[in-house]
Structures are given as C-alpha cells and as structure tokens.
Amino acid sequence: MVNQQDRLHSTPFSVLDLAPIVEGGTIAEAFEASKRLAQLTESLQYQRFWVAEHHNMPGIASAATSLVIQHLAQATSTMRIGSGGIMLPNHSSLVIAEQFGTLDALFPGRIDLGLGRAPGTDRVTSQALRRNLGQTGYEFPDQLDELMAYFSPKDIGGLPMVRAFPGEGAQVPIWLLGSSDFSARLAGQLGLPFAFASHFSPENTTTALRVYRTNFTPSSVLSQPYAMVAANVIAADTSEEAHYLATSMQQQFLNLIRDVRRPLPAPIKDINQSWSEHEKAIVNQRIGSSIVGNREEVKGGIEAFLAETEADELMIQAQIFDLTSRLRSYEIIADLKAK
Fold it and tell me: What DSSP string runs through 78-114?
C-alpha cells in the first residue's frame, strides 16, 4: 500500500495556466507572465504545461491556443507543452491536425493535444465561431475519429482525397478532458489518457475517475489507465497570505455566476463583503475543494487529494493576481514534492 508521503514524491506534477489577464494589465503582459511561469516550472521539474481555449473572456488570453503553445514551447526546451484543452467542436478536425502536426514538427516529442467537447464560451460566441449550435456534444466521438484518422500514417494505396500536411504521421499524444463522466467513459473505451477538471467540478471527480478506470480497454497508446487530475492549489509562506491571494480566484468565480466579464481581480482583505450567503455557497461548490495555505497545509491537502483520487499525475492551477506570488506558489509546491 502506497503511503501518502511516497505518493506526494512519486506523482508527477504539471501546470494548467489560463494566461490570466489581470486588472490593469495587458494581454502582452499575460503572455510574458505565462512564459516566465513555464520557464520556472520547467526548471523545477514539472512534467507539462497546458493552456486552455476560452473565448470572449477578458480575463483569459489563451483563445488562440495553438499560438500560445508555440510561444511557450519556444521559450522552453524540455517540458511538454499542450492544450488543456482544444475545444474540438469549435474547429475543423483537419485544421487541428494541421496545427498540431506543425507544432510537433517544430518541437518534436514535446507537444500534447488535450481535447474537450464543451464550447469554452457562451452561445452567442459559439455562433460567432461558426459552431453548429445544433450539436449536443454527442457528435464528439465522430469528430475525434476524424482527427485521429488525419494523424494516422497512410499506406501508398487507397489514400483518402483529403490528408493533413503537416499532421499525417505526427506523434502527438491525444488526451480527453472532462468535467463529467462522458469523456471519462470514452477515454477508457479508446484506451486514451484522461484529464479531469476537478478544479471547477470537484463533485464529479470520484465518479468520473471510477467510470474511466472501469471502462478502460488497453490500446496501442496505453496498457493501463492514466488519469491526470487538475486542482486549484495556492501556496504562500503564511496561511494568511495564501487565503488573501485566493480571493482573486474567488472573485473570478463570483463574477462568472453573476455573468460579469472582467480581468482577474486584485486580492481583497475580506471576501465576505463581496458576496451573499447564496453566492458564497455556489462559489464554494465550484472551488471549495481548492488547496490553499502555507507549506504544511498545502502538503497535507495535496497528500489527501492524491490519496482520494489515486491520480497518476496532478495538474496544478493557480489564479494568482501578482506574478511574483504566482511563481512563489509553484516554487513552494515543487519544494514540498522534492523533500
């Protein structure tokens, strides 16, 4: 039986970054901050660094996800860089195959393609993306099959009329992302690695991981299930500072439930002055499982989270307003793992 401390030391840690645009900041500064975070976490031996596709959100700069991946891959040398994720129904499968085939050719062996089926935005913006609003998400398996076919090496005879150049034969690992059990089941059936969004859907974590592992069928990609779980983790030198920093994330989710779109807010001293009891309950349902605190509190929180989920990899998300504090949080977490 694996004890909690051994699990902490042996489980790979990775980074989920939303390239946050902070109040008073610029998009260029957001990209520079993501670059600095990628360079730091690479030096700290984090496994991978993913950015996510969102649209019409003034606090997130990673809408053109493939371009941001290129920016980060150019600034690093060993860390895997990828998407957490590309929302496949927003795109032609051919275009994604070409984009990630290009990235794989530029940065061989370093690119991950995480795929989701949600729009990553609102209904009006989905229409502006030319997404078929009649889609329910259940078309996703067919789109995935099409994408995987574009990546597949082709024999000389009987070739299809449309092929992906770049893309064909590219060795890009495909991950399925989910916040419920739909993609968990599909990832298991296809024998693909699975990444679960526990950082905003904690109530579905246990069920989705069980569905994935129960339905797993070995494939040419994996002989056994591999589940990465994302969590909000904010570490600081004192508990008080960490909880102060976490108020930016709390305000961000409060704005989401109020349908208020704005950059990542600066932290505030008393979050209870900002929300009603009902709003507090909703926010806590979404992010109440976040791990926030000083070194010992975060260490205990991560150990408990890994024991509960039995995650093969932990992906850490930290919506921290101040870049120096954001970098420090990842430093503390890496130090906990090393010791």
Answer: SSEEEEEEEEGGGS-HHHHHHHHHHHHHHSTT-EEEE
Residue 239 has phi, psi (to 5 degrees) of -60, -40
Tokens 């990553």 belong to which residue?
Answer: 120
Q: In the chain, how long is the greatest CA-to-CA distance?
A: 68
* Stated pTM of the model: 0.95
**CA angle, residues 157, 97, 217, in degrees to nearest 5:** 80
Distance between CA atoms of 203 and 286, rounded to whole angstroms? 8
- Which of these ranges, 2-6, 27-31, 243-247, 269-273, has the smallest mean pLDDT? 2-6
CATH number, domain with residue 60 = 3.20.20.30
The whole-angstrom separation of Cα 52 and Cα 122 is 15
Domain, as residue range, for 225: 4-231+311-338
Which residues, at least 6 apart from 54, have a Cβ–Cβ distance to it below 8 Å?
Answer: 18, 60, 62, 63, 120, 121
List pLDDT tens digits, range 197-237: 999 999 999 999 999 999 999 999 999 999 999 999 999 99
